[in-house]
Design brief:
Length: about 110
């Protein structure tokens, strides 16, 4: 069992930056693909970025060049650095571990 907790969300103006963090407890973290998803009101949950256990990256086209996912296997942490945020990035952001374990989400709001 892996327990997942996200943090770092908040309100930011367009063009601003935020860094989301995801802390995972339990064993085997380094063997999992880890990812960030988001869900905006009225929309389905969508993949934002993922990084495999081998370090392969995958980004949604809408965030390429603006968002960077990273992981720290020694600390069981996943990060999402978000820059040049736009109103369409407004959503609840969820951390996923191994396509199995989910956190409760952290809300990101981009508005002037």
């Amino acid at each position: 069992q892996v327990h997942v907790v996200e943090s770092g969300g908040g309100l930011v103006q367009p063009g601003g930056s935020l860094r989301l963090s995801c802390a995972a407890s339990g064993n085997g973290f380094s063997s999992y693909t880890v990812a960030w998803y988001r869900q905006a009101p009225g929309n389905q949950r969508e993949l934002v970025a993922a990084i495999s256990r081998l370090g392969t990256f995958n980004y949604a086209d809408s965030v390429k060049g603006r968002f960077t996912i990273s992981r720290d296997n020694a600390r069981n942490m996943v990060y999402l650095q978000m820059s040049n945020l736009q109103p369409e990035d407004t959503a609840v952001y969820y951390c996923n571990i191994g396509l199995i374990y989910w956190g409760q989400g952290t809300r990101v709001s981009v508005s002037s």
